[in-house]
Amino acid sequence: MTQKGKKQCFRRTSPPDILRDLPGNVIDEILMCLPFRDAVRTSILSKKWRHIWCSLPQLTLCYTLWKPEEDLTDFPSNFVRIVNHFLIFHVGPVTKFTLCVPYLDICPNIDNLIRHISRNGIQHLVLRLPIRGKPYILPSSLFTCSQLRHLTLQNCSILYQRDFKGFDRLTSLELRDVTIESKFIELLISRCSLLEQLVLQISGALSNVIEISAPMLRSFDYTGNIRSICVKNIPVLAKLSLSHREYYVAAGKCNIAKFFESFSALEQLHLNDMFFAAGAGEVPMRLSYDLYCVKHLCISSIYLSDSNEVSCALCLIRSFPNLQSMEIKVECDDNDTPALESLEVEPFSDVTFNHLREVKLMQTNGTIPEMQLMKLLLAKSPKLVRMLIEPCLVEDSATVKVLAELTKFQRASPKAEVVYKLDKHPNPPSV
């Protein structure tokens, strides 16, 4: 066989270059699923792949990508090297960018990084910055990103931006443990006309009341001092979550009736605890209006021996006539005396939970107020299908006592099943 024939035979039998023949959009999807370090390393796989990472529109920079978590000695210098590499070689738009650097005392070169992505069409930006040392002050260039749709900022300081025009396309905003003036929070939210999801986790007490005005807002998760927030113009808000930090408990009074009057479209309410009950003064039996849209109520922490907390909880429950599911986590207290006789069935003679189908009670101990709550819900819920009880007690004798008591309670629903779930029993008993 001639030399020419050998070459032709070799060409006919050579396997195709699968990597080279992949469509460009497929290669992009593969690289965007990889950690940044591994995406860069793919440049050695094929000539076609050599510079593809340089134009990826979605990138994540996290300390775990280029330095083992247990050895952070050289992390600052490595971080600077990686950022510089990105700034020099990356070209084209950056539509999604995540930066997570929780262990640095300082943030070298982040200003240049933010300036770079702010000029390249950023739409989804997540900055989780160091929790040590002084808070990182965000550069003003961040507030020129006119195409932003999602913004998450954590552990940073935001200065008042007098020339801020707004994020016209922003639909999701998360501010966690940030230092920011009340006035700028209001301005920031009011100038995001399409905002649908809002998370505010305030890291310090604010001297002024924050007024939230967001006509498109559908979900609001707030951690802070409820007495420092005023919610207005939220006609489509469907999901609300409220939490507090302990040092805010005694920070003034909250008018529960006035606070909830703006939530006409509310469907889901999550109260991390009943903290707004502290200092609330006299609580009405029910609100002067009903919130007909509320279908799901979750209270993550309540002391049934605290009269203020019980009063506030019952006031809300009475005012949700279309409630379908309820989840309550009970806090243990040495005092097992009922807070009020209002947990008895008789004071609810004018109330029936006509739509309540599922109830979940957690961390119960079989105390008197807990048993009264179970009795009340069973007696006033004609459509109840299932009550799940997850106790924290483990003594068999106590379990038998609670189960025996539950069998005596009158049930408005013939289909109501009470499931008593214990970790040591794979098949929880039903009564």
Give a written overview of the molecule.
The structure is a single chain. This protein has 431 residues and is an alpha/beta fold. The chain has a domain at 15-56. A 14-stranded parallel β-sheet has the order 1-2-3-5-7-8-10-12-13-14-15-16-17-18, with helices on one face. 24% of the residues lie in helices and 21% in strands. The chain has helices at residues 3-13, 18-21, 24-32, 36-41, 75-89, 110-118, 182-190, 256-260, 307-318, 368-379, 396-406; strands at 58-62, 96-100, 124-128, 136-137, 150-154, 156-157, 172-178, 197-202, 210-213, 219-223, 229-232, 239-243, 268-271, 296-302, 325-330, 358-364, 386-391, 417-420. The longest helix is centred in the first third of the chain and has 15 residues, at 75-89. It contains 11 helices and 18 strands. The protein is elongated, with a radius of gyration of 29 Å.
Number of helices: 11
Give the strand content. Answer: 15-25%
What structural class do helix, strand and pairing data support? alpha/beta
Compressed to H and E, one letter per element, the order equals HHHHEHEHEEEEEHEEEEEHEEHEEHEHE
> Considering DSSP H and I runs of 4 or more, what fraction of the residues is helical?
10-25%
Mean pLDDT across the residues is 80
How are the SSEs ordered, and which strands pair?
Layout: H1 3-13, H2 18-21, H3 24-32, H4 36-41, E1 58-62, H5 75-89, E2 96-100, H6 110-118, E3 124-128, E4 136-137, E5 150-154, E6 156-157, E7 172-178, H7 182-190, E8 197-202, E9 210-213, E10 219-223, E11 229-232, E12 239-243, H8 256-260, E13 268-271, E14 296-302, H9 307-318, E15 325-330, E16 358-364, H10 368-379, E17 386-391, H11 396-406, E18 417-420
Parallel strand pairs: 1-2, 2-3, 3-5, 4-6, 5-7, 7-8, 8-10, 9-11, 10-12, 12-13, 13-14, 14-15, 15-16, 16-17, 17-18
